Description:
With about 625 residues, the protein is α+β, with helices and mostly antiparallel strands. Helix content is about 60%, strand content about 10%. Strand 6 (about 520) and strand 7 form a beta hairpin.
Amino acid sequence: MKGIRNLFKSNLFILLFALLLDLTIFGLSFVFLGKVEFGAEVFIIPIICLLFGPYAALGCAISQIIIGVIFDLNNIFYHLCTFFIVLLAGILVWKLWYASLDRFGLEIPNLGNYSSFIKMFVSYFGFYAVIAFSFALPYDYRWIFDFEASLSISLLLLLFSIYFVNYVKIPVYVPRKQLKSILPEKVYSIIFLLIMFGALVFAVYADYFVILFMLALVVIYLSRPYNPQVFKLERTININLVQKMTFSVLLIAIFLECLFLIAHILGDYNDILATVDNFGLYYLIHLFSRNATIFILLFLIPFLFYLYYLEKNVTNPINSISTSLNVDLISKNSNLMLKENLKSISNDNEIKKLTNSLIQMESDVDKYRNELLKVTAENERYETELYLAESIQSSLIPTDFDKFCENKNFDIYGIVHSSRETRGDFYDYFQIDDENIGFVIGDVDNKGIHAALIVVEVMTLIQDYAKHYDDLSKCFVEVNDLLCNTDVKNSFVTSIIGKLNLNTGDLFLVNAGHNYPLFKYNGQEFEYLNVNKGLALAIQKNVDYEILQMKMSPGDTLFLYTNGVTDAESDSEGIYGEDRLRNILNEHSSDDLESIISSLEKDIDVFCDYQEQVDDRAMFVLKFK
């Protein structure tokens, strides 16, 4: 189908298409009707020319010369006249469409509104008047009525062709260039109205003077320039509801007329009339079957009023709703404009109910937008806090392991793995004096930037008091009292602080509500070390903490962690747990410290199926050499 549509973009193809179609229709009509004087192909000409323009008119005009020469070689002058008459009438039907009634904007032939119907019938009758006048002159004027009797077939084909071309989206021929205006625009409007009036008069009363008057007006009207908007026309349009309705209604009406016309052609016309004489329909059917134009006009005029009513009360309000809704609803002004546009639709029918529903919907959308803006602002603030918390935490956690352990008899390594929402886990290590190092791990029961600020305070206090007191338990007592006096917003901190004497290997540990550490002693496996848990920091003042003292030998290793390790959760297997932690540490106990933590991190990720966890996890390992 796409290839066929592309063919209609070629002017040469349009010319050949019109030529061959016109010859084909003539051939079929000659075979079935046996008439040469006025072939049925004449009725296809306005359809082709309306859709495909001057090149189609030229093809049809050439076809008429070929037909004339085949059947009457001696009358060349008459055939040339026929050529120019068909060419003029063909261009006229196309010109009348694109140069008149652009109330809805210039558009390709369609059945979408009452204005299009008026343009279509005016264009068709302009062609009809030129052909009828030109061909009727050599004959008895009564021949015109036989011409009118076949009008229904042509209109049926016209409606079907317009609908079909739009449905399959075949490109139509639109004007290519702008012409200069000869007469004022008002004069062309008056001429157009006179042509319309003349077409109606001719449809009822066929007279030579009416036809001659119309021809003169048509020739003048052909000089009207096209509106510049015509060059922006789309080659195809979509089929709308009005087109489908009007096509269906007119199809039924013209089909009924065609039944009478076929009966008349087959010779059973009088018998049909006799069967309905008792119902008083004889003269009505006789009028309709002998003068199809009157039937169509009697039907067309009320139908146009119906179309006008339909557009005013249905399609135009729907289009207004569609246009109003096709706006950016983010700004407040656009919402106010939408409300005003919807309220301006005053139709008291189902459309009004729809409009009221849309107004209510717009109010709901406006309310939702305000809530969304509020939530978005909160989320942006929250994301900013998380970013700041992560930056603060990252800047505080030391990672210069090699430099700190250089030329010393111990190794250390640590890691903090932050989740999306919390930033409260930490570890730290520091030099107390020439013989001792200190270290700490902790978990703030909070999240976001508040947790990060508490981490800053806790790490600073612990490092200061660890250097001030030889007894680590007193360090935690002081830190706890200070935190209780500080506004930490109902937060608390679990922590373990440690001190290692590098000369003697003496290890001191104090536990403030934290997880039990694991200790590898004398080449054995890792086991949990029972460091008595005191109360977590920042809960209550005047709390005493116990200190655990033990000695580390070369090769002994201490592993500290936060509850984000053992509480890591899998959808299918539950929590990671203390047993699995101990087993993994023992599997990799002979590895270097970085490898131990890396192996543990990998095992946790596999266990959790790489799903993001809700809690941070921190790990710190110390090995005495």
